[in-house]
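My current task is to audit a protein record that another person submitted. Please read both lines and tell me whether the tokens look consistent with the sequence. Do not assume that whoever made the record got everything right. I have pasted the whole thing underneath without changing anything:

===
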Amino acid sequence: MQNSDAPKIAKLPLLAAVIALVGLADAIYLTVKHLSGDGVQCTIVHGCEQVLNSDYAKFAGIPLAFIGVAAYFTVFSLATLAAFGNRQAWNFLSIMVGMMAIFTGWLLYLQGFVIEAFCQFCLLSAGVTFTLLGIVIVSRYFFKRLA
């Protein structure tokens, strides 16, 4: 049984790294748009400008998108290390993703109930974060060797 689980376990950190790259690309896009002063085009939902220009779009003067760049790059780096067998990196990644999921939940609350608008790029980021959380949960409960 252990031998058949090994290939699946080895793929989880790689999957997490690829998904983190999606979040990284999204966060870089939003950071560049913010720094250049260009608006973003919402094609799926309406409210991107309202969300991205709200008082909640920055923390201590730093755009949340830039903080997202740092977070997704960290997750990508840790997942890459874990893909090469570094168990401690996976443990740190698990903690990081847990914190990101809690913060993402807060941001979704703000969009839905305080700002009353949604940004499709923020929703993509939320999807990425919760997908990473799902990978971590799967690794913890179904593949004990990785945890």
Q: What stands out?
A: The chain has a mean pLDDT of 89. The two ends are 17 Å apart (CA to CA). The first helix runs from residue 2 to 36. The beta strands are 58-59, 62-63.
